[in-house]
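Re: Re: token formats

Sure, here are both.
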Amino acid sequence: MKLDNLYKNDMDKKRDSVIETIKESFSFLTPAFLIGAFALAIQSFPVTAIRELVATVLDGKLYDFLEILYQATYGFTAVYLVFIFSCLNSHTEKIHTDIGVISVISTTICYFASLGSAVLNGEVSLMRYTNMANVFSALLIAVLYNKLFFLLYHKLMRNREDAYSTTFTRGIHCVPIVCICVGISALGAELISLCEGIYNFNDLVVALLGKPFETIGATFLGGFLIMFCESVLWMVGIHGSNVFDTLLTSETSVFAFGNGCIMNKPLLDTFVLMGGCGTTLCLFAAILLFSRDKRMRRLTRLAGIPIVFNINEIFVFGIPIVFNPIYLVPFVVTPLVSYTISYLAMFTGLVPPIINGSVHWTTPVIISGYQATGSIAGSILQLVTLVVGTFIYMPFVRKADRVAVENEEKCLQCLTDICRKAEAEKQPYRLNHVSALLSSFEENLFNKLNSDIQAGTVAIHYQPQVRDDKVIAAEALLRFQYREGKAVYPPLVVEIARNRGVFEELSKVICKRALKDLKEMQRIEPAFEVEVNLRIELIMDEAFRKWLIQEVEEAQVTPNTFGIEITEDANISDADVYQTTFEQIKKSGIKVFMDDFSMGNTSITILQKNYFDFVKMDGSLIRNLQNERTQSIVSSIIQLGQRLNFRVIAEYVETEEQRDQLLAMGCDTFQGYLYYKDMPVENLVGILKNENKDRTGQ
């Protein structure tokens, strides 16, 4: 199995889907949604005097500025989604980067071609078809034409690429593919425009969905069905409010306010769609009250101000709720329950009917309920529906928490498998052609790691080393945790840090933490030793080396009790520069360990140089100690240590039989589960205190 295809197991086949890519696409728009939502909230502030002030101050320039922010973000949502989806989808294809860029351009052209000639000629406003109301059609076009591009590419052009292709030649090769995609899109738009008053696919969808409700009437059932369909449409990215807007707002419509019916648009806006579609103010409350997902709670707090003013796009598309099967049921059911409660409350006379149909749509709950009915009963009704809706959302919020944790665990296992595969094949760790979900999770891992590095809180454990049944030293081990109690495979953390350019900072944090902990442990046992793992390239870096020597001096630990382990397959030649480097380190009171001796690039010839104070035998030797040839190798290493004046440490000692064999060969220092697993510094301090108490009797 190729390394780049390792993620193609059952879990990733399931997750590397169109739906997951669409959901990920919405996440990238969070900054745009935030900016647009705050601009709209200020423009549409529920206090008339403030709205008028915003519209007139600086001769209307403030309003114009806010309008620019809103239109530049929300006004082109559909275009942004086409672009983002195409980028993410192309990332999963095993192609040259240039082909991926061309696929994005091709799909974006197809989107504009699908708008039809009337829109592109300026007969109809282009902005009408680039905003939030066109999400469904935009995503459908993005999926169809980006997938079509790659289908044609793999069928027609893949074998024409060679090592000498340039961006220009690859572009020329793709011309027929782009022509086919754009041609199909343009032809489809022209066929749709043959319908009177229909300019493109989006218009067709809206017209077909809204038509049946014109004859139902402003009855309880009519309103119930409208709410049901509107919520379902939102879940698949169709702007449900736009579909029924004309039906609900037309002065000649049976749903118009003042027609004597309980069911009308003010009822829906004020008592049903609190916080926007899906009665998302209830979801907002449910997440703050019941969710344990820190990311979700943070996003919810960011959406707090807009959603109070019934602006919920950042919520709907940021979580996202759209295309999210977990929230399908409550997103549809909560408005229906709110509608039923509100309708019955007014039908039975418990709450007065709406007397003010001009309450501004951004007016917060409680206030809007009172303004609409002229009674405190209206506010109480809103509170009742808010509480009921919150508890409807509650189990689904908890389910979303569980699913998020499960997905993270699967992604973490997949990244760990990729890292292990890279180690086994001696290849660099890379994420090529993987799902958007997996790439996003690695990004989250890095963000958490970088945050811990900046705060100096990267978790470190210590595994004790034992001589004569006494703990005399410990190895510092990286134990980064993504969630509480969820440790990440250390080599994966190291590789992510290296790829993202923070490995040196990570190493510095580990060294500083180890020196601080060593100082604490030496208050109990002054001769106690600690070593940390460092890569050879860091040790050879003069600036880092000077920093390390200075840190050891400033820590004021006992001389020659802090050590460094040369990790991985360190390629150490016998050049003079290595000799000088190691001499400088050892003169500074820092011991040098060779880790995993007998594997990789380590060679017995480097033991001719007096580089190392300690040699730690590779764990595979200890695990295979029952083999006679392995016994001979281990015995030879121990004898070399005795003759060349370096100590030998046996790692991965897990049984008494292994320990006894090693003792018989002359090795007296052990590290492994027979004695201790790795542990936090507090536990190690406790062990040292107990040993000191047993020894001194105090």
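Second one below.
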Amino acid sequence: MKRLDQLTSQARAQWDALSRSDDPVVWVASGSCSVAAGADAVAQAMRDELAARGCQARFVRTGCTGLCYLEPIVIVRKPGCARVLYGPLNEDSARRLVAECLLGDGFCPDLAIGRLDADPPEDVPDLSEHPAMRHQVRRVMQHCGLIDPEDLSHYLANGGYEAFREALTMPAAQIVERLKESGLRGRSGGGFPVWRKWEFTRNAEGQQRYVLCNAHEGDPGAFSNRLLSESDPHGFLEGMLIAAFTVKARQGYIYMASEYPLAHQRVATAIDQLRWAGLLGDDILGSGFSFDITLRNGAGVFVTGEETAQIASIEGRRAAPAPRPPYPGQAGIAGAPTLVQNVETLANVPLIVAHGGEWFRAVGAPASPGTKAFSLSGRLARRGVFELPLGMGLSHVVNDVGGGARDEHPLKAVHTGGPPGGLLPADIEVPLDFDSMGETGSLMGSGGIIAIDDRTCVVDLARHFMEFAQDEACGQCVPCRNGNRVMLDILNRLTQGQGTPGDLDRLLELGNVVRLTSLCGLGQTAPNPVLTGIRYFRSEFEAHLRESCPAGVCSLSSPAEPVAGAAAS
């Protein structure tokens, strides 16, 4: 433990020196969204302006704050003043920020998003009052945008690896009990109780055990795990260490999509830092516990988000789902018990170990306690990643957190849960929790919420998701392979003005067969956009039978008389 004590003491001294620096400090948000929006050019403009004036400042490269729609973002702290979040910036406003704020007496309130501390300037409101922040409860995202994700000392200075240190002194059964008290459910979409999976894996027969972190996140419209991996990789790595200690695993894998190069780089750096610090390898901190982690880059195939397909990919086999049982907790990697959890689930574990189950349950819904990082995108005024209490109403999230429609076009629908999710009315009153979302026919999934306005055709969108499911399926089982193809053929005809009476009934019948008989989760949920589309937007489907697209999107034939029997179908 002495090694960790020394590193933590040094880290806190360095963090304190940064907080008390006599030079201005600039934290530059540098997640994938930030860089794409021009963060590097903004930072360089600030450096050039400082150099031209013969001045200097300390620059810290952070991850994303989650306020993606306001990127590029920087945080500025002048000596004796609060940290203030500014954005969106360009090169001109960045140079102005240097002249008027860093080197002058002003604070550029027109560029300010909010201040993070109680110090001056009083004319800049507290960040917690900002519409995008006031509903959030930042737990797993508490460090996002505030620390350098490639500097272990920043994580250590803010309480990092204290929960792991505590876990090493606890019986494994006590850690499982703490998870049970918390009610934590898996954040990848299934919502399975985490403590059950840990206990099941820990008690399975076999000497070798593995922990697999599913960082694939293949759902279009979901990017919260990418943000956590880029902005605070040690948060979930600490959870992975606690998981390995609890289930008696000696080897871990992280399976990450190839579409996430920056996340891959930062996680790889964090793993190297853990080895250097003695937090990975043999006899960690003198505890007798040994564990190491291998980072694997996935090929980006959607089906590898399914745990048995992911295990097959890790083993060098074709990424195809396997029948269950046996479950990975019994026979996973190399036939050994394997605990599979996603990034956000693991990031919650150190918080529960440190603060307890009662603290965790203080927010959220009774059957779905805690928070969830939701990815908001589409036709919303405010887009990004927002950590919200589970149980918050979907319409509340769309309108109060997401800011409602981006322009004069009204919102029509909300797509939740990625391609396996569903299409719901934008004004539907339903709590965002695992059970309530399932009752709508949709899913909460990994937290993707896409807002759709009246310029989007629901039938065409359902066709798009079915096409995605067909392309990404492994082709192993008949219901998914053939059933989805037939459903796609019907949807193609509908969007081309060639629908026939009975098409909607056939879609419902086929969808339910595929849902009930497919081998894996991809096939079982692939029909959801079609089934919910017909359930909530049947009139739009029926309009296509009359060769009319209300959104004006589909290339239909010229208007014709209603198809006989269309209403009955």
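The CA atoms of residues 135 and 388 lie 7 Å apart. Residues 558-569 have pLDDT under 50 and may be disordered.
- S.
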